[in-house]
């Protein structure tokens, strides 16, 4: 990947976090523009950025309000939100406003850099047509680019952790996947993922894809071993 051509904007009012992000992104080969407020960014919003790292809690206009304004003006710049809250209502607001991902403070810098690199790679593959954009599983259709499942014409948003888990199943069909393997595979994008989290994800996937969630034929439990996604 030619990172030098990727221009990342940062909107963060905490000087230490903003400077840390800017310094490390530059070291990683990205072009960086950093802003203290949403209003500062808006004055240069058309500078050709490839990604926006956006803090939610800002002086003046907050991050969610800025994101809504960008989407209302058909500005489709990819946005990763920086948040100090992992409350479900907060993350739901993030996705409803048009963010493609979020990361919780304090964050692991290496994980954030990997998340950014993976995002650019996904966008590159999508632009080149080298990746399947969505996947039909039973009664639902999964779109990993939009963190979404559509069933019966109704859209169901997924968290980044759920998307990463579901995508791993899709990429590894018809074999047993242990909880430990799943935890290791998506640890770069999700911290503190527990076995209980994974069990709940699978229950959710059954509700989204199985014709009869209580009698699963796609997301199968293998006692004492893990799960398997059955696909033709």
UniProtKB/TrEMBL annotation:
Q: What residues form the membrane-spanning segments?
A: none
The Gene Ontology biological process terms listed for this entry are: regulation of DNA-templated transcription
DNA-binding region as annotated in the record: 132-231
Q: Pfam families this protein is in? A: Response_reg, Trans_reg_C
OmpR/PhoB-type domain mapped to chain residues = 132-231
InterPro entries assigned to the protein according to its UniProt record, in alphabetical order: CheY-like_superfamily, OmpR/PhoB-type_DNA-bd, Sig_transdc_resp-reg_C-effctor, Sig_transdc_resp-reg_receiver, WalR-like, WH-like_DNA-bd_sf
Q: Is-annotated flag, keyword Kinase?
A: no
Tell me the GO molecular function terms: phosphorelay response regulator activity; transcription cis-regulatory region binding
4-aspartylphosphate found at:
55
Instruction: Could you list this entry's UniProt keywords, alphabetically sorted.
Output: DNA-binding, Phosphoprotein, Two-component regulatory system
Domain named Response regulatory: which ranges? 7-120
> SMART domains under this entry?
REC (SM00448), Trans_reg_C (SM00862)
Q: Which domain of life is it from?
A: Bacteria
- Record carries keyword DNA-binding: yes
- GO cellular component: a single term: protein-DNA complex
What protein does this entry describe? Answer: Two component transcriptional regulator, winged helix family
| Organism this protein belongs to | Turneriella parva (strain ATCC BAA-1111 / DSM 21527 / NCTC 11395 / H) (Leptospira parva)
């Amino acid at each position: 990947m030619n990172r030098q051509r990727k221009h990342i904007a940062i909107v963060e009012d905490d000087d230490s976090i903003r400077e840390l992000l800017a310094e490390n992104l530059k070291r990683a080969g990205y072009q960086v523009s950093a802003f203290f407020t949403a209003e500062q960014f808006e004055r240069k919003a058309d500078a050709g950025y490839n990604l926006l790292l956006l803090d939610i809690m800002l002086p003046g206009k907050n991050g969610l309000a800025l994101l809504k304004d960008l989407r209302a003006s058909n500005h489709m710049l990819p946005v990763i939100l920086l948040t100090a809250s992992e409350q479900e209502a907060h993350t739901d607001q993030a996705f409803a406003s048009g963010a493609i991902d979020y990361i919780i403070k304090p964050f692991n810098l290496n994980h954030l850099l990997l998340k950014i690199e993976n995002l650019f790679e996904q966008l590159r593959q999508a632009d080149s047509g080298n990746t399947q954009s969505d996947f039909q599983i039973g009664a639902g259709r999964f779109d990993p680019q939009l963190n979404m499942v559509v069933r019966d014409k109704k859209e169901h948003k997924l968290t980044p952790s759920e998307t990463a888990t579901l995508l791993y199943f899709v990429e590894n069909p018809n074999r047993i996947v242990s909880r430990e393997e799943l935890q290791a595979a998506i640890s770069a994008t999700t911290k503190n993922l527990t076995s209980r989290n994974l069990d709940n994800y699978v229950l959710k996937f059954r509700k989204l894809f199985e014709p009869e969630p209580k009698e699963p034929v796609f997301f199968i439990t293998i006692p004492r071993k893990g799960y398997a996604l059955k696909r033709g």
